[in-house]
Design goal:
Blueprint: H1 25-44, H2 53-58, E1 63-67, E2 71-77, E3 86-91, E4 94-101, E5 118-125, E6 135-139, E7 142-148, H3 151-155
Antiparallel strand pairs: 1-2, 2-7, 3-4, 4-5, 6-7
Length: 165
């Protein structure tokens, strides 16, 4: 492979005329596919497979899961929403937080937006919680779901001592 093959501005050349002993059609196809993906995602101003706004919106709302000996707490940030816009369900050991964030303006009035609108759903697997004692609180756009553990779940924890040598 020649060093000129690595230079990005060499991509504009006609690839069908490049016949040499080092010509590799698979490598050429690979380069062209990368160029096509780069061009497509450059139009959206996002990285194709990196941390981007598109990727972040797929994981909206942001959640935090804390576990202690007695309970599991799930906190979700839901700015701009009210309690009536959110549903919390526990089905078959999976906590589901879902709802919809509606836009305040019409699309014709909007010039640019990085805000997320639409339906959302996050699913968090939880084990050995007392379904009858689960509580949820919503304050200042933050949802906190507290799930006390069952007594037998607390006894399943076995602490292991670490010995120093």
């Amino acid at each position: 492979m020649a060093i000129t093959d690595l230079i990005p501005w060499s991509r504009g050349r006609d690839l069908t005329t490049r016949r040499s002993e080092n010509y590799n059609p698979v490598l050429t196809l690979h380069r062209e596919m990368n160029r096509l993906f780069d061009d497509v995602f450059r139009g959206f101003d996002v990285a194709p497979f990196g941390s981007s706004f598109f990727e972040q919106s797929m994981n909206w709302p942001s959640i935090e899961v804390n576990e202690s000996d007695k309970d599991v707490k799930v906190t979700a940030e839901l700015p701009g929403l009210e309690e009536k816009d959110v549903q919390v369900e526990l089905v078959n050991g999976v906590l589901a937080i879902k709802g919809e964030k509606k836009t305040e303006t019409e699309d014709k009035d909007r010039k640019f937006s990085e805000r997320y609108y639409g339906r959302f759903e996050r699913r968090i697997p939880v084990d050995d919680v007392d379904q009858d004692k689960i509580s949820a609180a919503f304050k200042n756009g933050v949802l906190t779901v507290t799930m006390p553990k069952l007594p037998q779940a607390e006894s399943k924890v076995k602490r292991i001592a670490i010995n120093s040598k």
